[in-house]
Amino acid sequence: DWAARFDAERANLRAVVRAALAAGDFKSAIELIWNTTVFYEIRAANAEPRTWTNEIVASKPALDTVIDQYRCVIAEQLPGMYEELRGLAQGAQISVAQALLLQLRRELVGFTKIRTDGDCTTFGRHQEGRTVLGQTIDLNGDMERELTAMRVCHSDGRTVLLASFTGLLGYLGMNDRGVAICLNLVLGGQWGPGIPGYMAIRHLLDEAASVDDCLALLRTLPLASSRALTICDRSRLVTVEYIRNEMRVLEGSLLVHANHFLDDAFGGRDELNPFARTSSMRRQDACRTGIGNV
């Protein structure tokens, strides 16, 4: 089976990670560690990737500096969530820097290596006073074991229902005020220290009671990267594409989004490679056709 094949290649994987760490190629090392987490859990061998993560965090001042830049922004802009992050680190018996790495994986890895065999596709429809929103979650690395549904209950009664992965404070979900958010990775611009996409979504679900609230809150955040968020409430459906703090809002009764920009102004800045773009466009067309037939 696949785990047995992985066992046979374990020495090679170890050599590749070691070579990446020695060369200072932290993006590749982080991506390899992330994508092999499930295997190491199955083999009850989490100590090895944890050691690699510790080396990434502890042995290279340059990475420490980058993580700290993100930490400062998050602590200033989202102090409550930063305290939650500290609690996550304490409960998991990891450092705050390691907990931050989980939130920042995509931002730190960037988009130099994007597979062409699929990613998430989102759809939404607002019709006759009802809104339906959903998406596929198609990620590399056999992440099913890490996916969970969790309820976040605030002391003032606000409630958020999240679909998220081990160690992530946010991913996608809905709240008790009728706001729901799905997301797609889109690639553009120069990414840098700011609020990562997953934490931005969690902040919107914590605080917003409407699509208008979400748009207003997004405009106040120093965003770190690029994403497409499809957001709905009881009366409105929008997709927000953003590249750092530039935003475009698309609105309609039927919205479908894959992994390429739909806004014309952003389309010329799309960094998705041609093969992945073809896949993205085909998935979007297939989803739109399917929803139209329902």
Compute the average pLDDT.
88
Q: Kindly report the spatial arrangement of strands forming the biggest sheet.
A: 3-4-5-6-7-8-9
Total strands:
10
Question: Which structural class do you get from the secondary structure elements?
Answer: alpha+beta
Detail the poorly predicted runs.
112-117
How many distinct helices? 12
Order of helices and strands: HHHHHHHHEEEEEEHHEEEEHH
Strand content: 15-25%
Largest sheet: 7 strands, antiparallel
Shape: globular
Helix content percent band: 40-55%
Roughly how many Å apart are the termini?
38 Å
CA radius of gyration is 19 Å
Care to give the gist of this entry?
The chain is α+β, with helices and mostly antiparallel strands and 294 residues long. Helix content is 47%, strand content 20%.
Give structural notes:
The strands form 2 sheets. The protein has a 7-stranded antiparallel beta sheet, covered by helices on one side. Helix 3 runs antiparallel to helix 5. The two termini are 38 Å apart. It has 12 helices and 10 strands. The chain has helices spanning 2-8, 10-23, 26-35, 37-42, 47-59, 61-77, 79-92, 96-109, 197-207, 211-220, 264-267, 274-292, and strands spanning 122-127, 130-135, 147-153, 159-165, 172-175, 180-185, 226-232, 237-243, 246-251, 254-257. It is an alpha+beta fold. Strand 3 and strand 4 form a beta hairpin. The chain is 47% helix and 20% strand.
